[in-house]
Amino acid sequence: MPDPTKNVPQDLRREYTKDALLESNVLPDPIAQFDRWFNDATLAGLPEANAMTLATVDTSGAPSARIVLLKGFDQRGFVFFTNYSSRKGRDLAANPRAALCFFWESLERQVRIEGTVEKTTRQESEDYFHSRPIGSQIGAWVSQQSEAIESREALDRRAEELLAKFVNTGVPLPDFWGGFRVVPHTIEFWQGRPSRLHDRLQYVREGDRWKIRRLCP
Ligand SMILES: Cc1cc2nc3c(=O)[nH]c(=O)nc-3n(C[C@H](O)[C@H](O)[C@H](O)COP(=O)(O)O)c2cc1C
Q1: What is the pTM of this model?
Q2: What is d(CA 112, CA 215) in angstroms, rounded to the nearest whole number?
Q3: More confident residue, 4 or 127
Q4: What confidence category does residue 4 fall into, taking pLDDT thresholds of 50, 70 and 90?
Q5: Cys bridge to 146: 7, 86, 108, 184, which one at CB 3.0-4.6 A?
Q6: What is the spatial distance between Cα 192 and Cα 30, in angstroms, rounded to a whole number?
Q7: Whether residue 1 has pLDDT greater than 80
Q8: Site to substitute for ligand 1 among 82, 85, 100, most atoms within 8 A of C-beta
Q9: Helix (H) and strand (E) counts in the chain
């Protein structure tokens, strides 16, 4: 007997009807197009429009994915900040390629970005690190991101110790912390359409130009 208070995934279904994505109304430059969609997402009041899935691959070829926050983008690429010794940091040191994915639910839009990855300059990491609240700066020092830790208390104790240590001097940027920039070679814009016949326009870099093609949904 099915439980009427529970939803099963196969019964969740929604039609996408908000918009269309046509060759005639996209910009020739995908960064400008991203800027336009990112702006739409923030204006729509999406709570964390800059949250994106980051996929990396380790030396054995195994993928892993997690959410990180986009902190800047321009013609050079898409920047996020993290612990360089974390699982993702180690993956990217060994295999500097990544994929990013945004889902802007109320706009029925997805953006997929693929490319090579480089570290931001130390100065960029310094500037961003020092723009963060002091608690987050301490947090970067406290967390040996992706490593096992014996307890929550151990984490909190270490945060208190480091706060006391740095309270008068300011918090320096840890060597193991900074930015990565995903330099895109492919960017796909996806707009949901009725009956699963969605619009997909994919930009592929060719030299210093971008070629646009339509993909089947
Ligand atoms: C909304 C959201 C934003 C996040 N932003 C970041 C971020 O900008 N940088 C980061 O290192 N981790 C961020 N995280 C945590 C990561 O998802 C992940 O747990 C952490 O980076 C460890 O990943 P790893 O072990 O694969 O390296 C965020 C998580 C969520 C849910």
Answers
A1: 0.96
A2: 13
A3: 127
A4: confident
A5: 86
A6: 19
A7: no
A8: 82
A9: 5, 9
Scan for tokens 């019964």, then name that residue: 11
What pLDDT digit, counting tens, does each position of 31-48 carry?
999 999 999 999 999 999
Ligand 1 lined by 84 (C-beta under 6 Å)? no
Q: What crossing angle do the helices spanning 152-166 and 134-142 adopt, rounded to 10°?
A: 120
Mean pLDDT, residues 112-137: 97
Q: How many CB atoms lie within 10 A of CB 69?
A: 14
- b/e sequence 77-95, b meaning 16+ C-beta within 10 Å: bbbbbbbbbbbbbbbbeee
Structure tokens at 161: 């110790």
Q: Say which residues have a Cβ less than 8 Å from residue 172's Cβ, sequence separation at least 6.
A: 166
State the catalytic residue, choosing from 196, 205, 213, 214: 196
Contact 111, 101 (CB under 8 A): yes
For residues 134 and 129, what is the distance between their CA atoms, to the nearest angstrom?
A: 9
* Residues 52, 61: Cα–Cα separation, whole Å: 22
Going by pLDDT thresholds of 50, 70 and 90, the confidence category of residue 196 is: very high
In the chain, the domains with their CATH numbers are 14-121+179-214 (2.30.110.10)
Does the annotation count 90 as an active-site position?
no
